[in-house]
Design the sequence.
């Protein structure tokens, strides 16, 4: 049975009925004369793809002459970020391990338990607790009906988190959290990349929220020696600083662009959410 807090959040956010349960037409507008309706309440899927160190983090480590840590053999969790944010005991939907060259496959993920989004989460010594969105019901307006393949999951090294914290500045993080936090991890954060159709970072993009304080969005400089608040630099990176209080959900979009559809996001203290904003419907 769905928890009241989750049902309420789905209602408030105006998510399609398919995302919050109930019958759904799997392919609206398509002739299904010879097809069978998909039962989203009992469907289980496999989530597979490739895990690697966040690209800008890997470049920063290489610039410093430090090795990029390997992820082979480390655990990976498939979970619903919204459920994590409200401390739902049923937030974990699957578990697996990262294999050779960063590949992974987690079977038997129950589709009915996905409300806003599905994420692959990573937590290990030397890394901050982070989740990468691999399926977004706000973006697709439905829950997944087939296996999710070819996903890319990003691990965020502690050293990169520390560089981002310094770039934004402890005084600003303390101000945004009413002195509850001094680092991004303590506050909770969203780490995003704006890319074009080929996957290259986009400079000059301004990220906006459907609600909330835009002053919480920062754009790190390419050398991570500071952060602006006007638009993305050549790295295409942006960081949203959470309040360090209760979990919140919102959507993100690119100001003045119709090519980039709104994406759902959320933040809670103690962890980061990683997502990529790209044009069109399919990741580059």
Sequence:
């Amino acid at each position: 049975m769905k928890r009241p807090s989750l049902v309420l959040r789905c209602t408030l956010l105006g998510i399609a009925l398919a995302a919050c349960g109930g019958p759904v037409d799997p392919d609206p507008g398509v002739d299904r004369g010879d097809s069978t309706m998909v039962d989203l309440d009992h469907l289980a899927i496999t989530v597979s793809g490739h895990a690697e160190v966040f690209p800008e983090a890997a470049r920063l480590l290489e610039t410093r002459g430090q090795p990029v840590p390997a992820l082979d053999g480390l655990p990976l969790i498939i979970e619903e970020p919204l459920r994590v944010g409200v401390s739902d005991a049923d937030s974990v939907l699957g578990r697996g391990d990262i294999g050779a060259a960063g590949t992974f496959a987690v079977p038997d993920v129950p589709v009915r338990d996905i409300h806003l989004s599905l994420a692959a989460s990573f937590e290990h010594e030397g890394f901050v607790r982070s989740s990468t969105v691999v399926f977004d019901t706000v973006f697709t307006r439905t829950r997944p009906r087939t296996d999710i393949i070819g996903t890319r999951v990003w691990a965020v090294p502690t050293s990169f988190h520390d560089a981002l914290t310094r770039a934004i500045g402890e005084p600003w993080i303390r101000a945004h959290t009413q002195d509850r936090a001094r680092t991004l991890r303590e506050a909770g954060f969203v780490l995003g990349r704006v890319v074009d159709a080929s996957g290259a970072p986009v400079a000059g993009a301004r990220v906006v929220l459907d609600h909330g304080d835009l002053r919480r969005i920062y754009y790190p400089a390419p050398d991570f020696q500071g952060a602006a608040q006007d638009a993305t630099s050549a790295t295409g990176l942006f960081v949203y600083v959470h309040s360090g209080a209760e979990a919140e959900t919102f959507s993100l979009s690119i100001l003045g662009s119709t090519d980039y559809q709104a994406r759902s996001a959320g933040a809670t203290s103690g962890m980061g959410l990683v997502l990529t904003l790209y044009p069109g419907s399919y990741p580059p």
Q: What stands out?
A: The first strand starts at residue 44 and ends at 53. Residues 158-168 form the longest helix (11 residues). DSSP finds eight helices and 15 strands in the chain.
